[in-house]
């Protein structure tokens, strides 16, 4: 009987840079808010932080604020860059475009129950789980960067660190430069 060998993929998560909606304290969800001038500067700084770091590929949400962050940060390096809808923010449905404080008050109710005409955070977790299953085996023992949103980060925390989803959505998203994860892959 062949013995399974566990190896891993290093995943670095980076939040998208500041968008126009972020500056107005609006919850975008799946709305396509562009990067602000500050966001463009933050994206350039992101690229500088990783200038000397070996990266196999960059994956980003297909929403403009994440896709543009990845392009600005990593485009000049010639790295493979893939946009994947499964890395999107939670779909707030009817609450997309409302003040962020309103969505924050509603988040706990939508851990497993979808936002009206949207999705739940549990559904985000399943999207990200599918992404990991599809992508990780191609990058064993290598590092990839994922550029996404708060819901993307919470899904990674839940899936890779075991943090309960209700606990995650109760927290405010605290930005920092990069979070590192190891995703085990059976070889």
Question: How are the SSEs ordered, and which strands pair?
Answer:
Layout lengths: L5 E10 L4 H4 L13 H13 L7 E4 L3 H11 L6 E3 L16 H7 L14 H15 L7 E6 L1 H12 L3 H6 L8 E8 L1
Helix pairs in contact: 2-3, 5-6
Distinctive features:
alpha/beta, 187 residues, 5-stranded mixed sheet, Rossmann fold
Question: How does this model look, in words?
Answer:
It is a single chain. With 187 residues, the protein is α/β, with parallel strands linked by helices. It has a single domain, classed as Phosphoglycerate mutase-like (Rossmann fold, 3-Layer(aba) Sandwich), CATH 3.40.50.1240. It has helices at residues 20-23, 37-49, 64-74, 100-106, 121-135, 150-161, 165-170, and strands at residues 6-15, 57-60, 81-83, 143-148, 179-186. The chain has a 5-stranded mixed sheet with strand order 3-2-4-1-5, with helices on both faces. The longest helix is centred in the C-terminal third of the chain and has 15 residues, at 121-135. The chain is globular and about 40 Å long.
Class computed from helices, strands and strand pairing = alpha/beta
Q: Helix tally?
A: 7
In CATH, the homologous superfamily goes by the name: Phosphoglycerate mutase-like
The CATH topology assignment is Rossmann fold
What is the oligomeric state here? Answer: single chain
Overall 3D form: globular
| Number of beta strands | 5
Helix content: 25-40%
Strand order of the largest sheet: 3-2-4-1-5
State the name of the first-level CATH class: Alpha Beta
> Could you give the distance between the termini?
14 Å
Q: How is the main sheet built? A: 5 strands, mixed
Mean pLDDT: 94
Count of discrete structural domains: 1
Strand-residue fraction?
15-25%
Poorly predicted residue ranges? none
